[in-house]
Amino acid sequence: MAYRTADLCDAHGDIVQIAEPLFRHFGGRKAFAGSIQTVKAHEDNSLVRAALEDPGRGRVLVVDGGGSLRCAMLGDQLAQIAVKNGWAGVIVWGAVRDTDSLGSLDLGVMAIGAHPQKSIKRNEGRIGIPVHFAGVHWAPGAWAFADKDGIVVAEVEVGT
Q: Contact, 24 vs 53, CB < 8 A?
């Protein structure tokens, strides 16, 4: 699917949400899109792993890490699992690590920062619930579109 977020905003501005421009690209894929799956967890990436171990089928995993920059919610090992299982990308409201490795993978990765510390592992959090951050309501089954201009979210798949 060929698209540009700017074109999506022009053509569908009445039905898309635009994430606040707080995210940086860390993955090797600079443009990606897919149906959203969500994880909400604070400084614990156990459920991020669990979600990425499921078949991605071109989806985008949206991780609500509460905006914490005290540890990473995604690193190269989980990103490799995402690639292996067919995920299009991961958007993290929090930090990632292993950024050089992330940049070499065919996976879209956007986050608000990088941090070298790994997260705790307590299997806490929730998968598949609506979350809200960066001025956007991220619901499982909605669509995320990301490129160098930003991130656009729509309740349904839209094209230019």
A: no
pLDDT on residue 76: 98
On whether the CB atoms of residues 12 and 157 are closer than 8 A, the answer is no
Tell me how far apart the alpha carbons of residues 68 and 92 are, in angstroms, rounded to a whole number. 10
Q: Do you know the residue count of the chain?
A: 160
Rg over alpha carbons for the chain, rounded to the nearest Å, is: 14
Q: Where are the domains of the chain?
A: 5-152
Q: Give the DSSP per-residue string, 16-80.
A: EEE--S--EE-SS-SSEEEEEEEEE-SSB-HHHHHHHTS--TT-EEEEE-TT--SSEEE-HHHHH
Which residues does 103 contact at the CB level (< 8 Å), separation at least 6?
Answer: 26, 27, 28
Q: Would you place residue 43 in the very low, low, confident or very high pLDDT band (cuts 50, 70, 90)?
A: very high
What's the topology of domain 5-152?
Answer: Glucose Oxidase; domain 1 (3.50.30)
Report yes or no: 148 and 5 within 8 Å, Cβ to Cβ: no
CB 133 within 8 A of CB 67: yes
pLDDT over 70 at 7, yes or no:
yes
Q: How far apart are CA 106 and CA 89, in angstroms?
A: 9
Instruction: Report the alpha-carbon distance of residue 155 to residue 137 in Å, rounded.
Output: 10
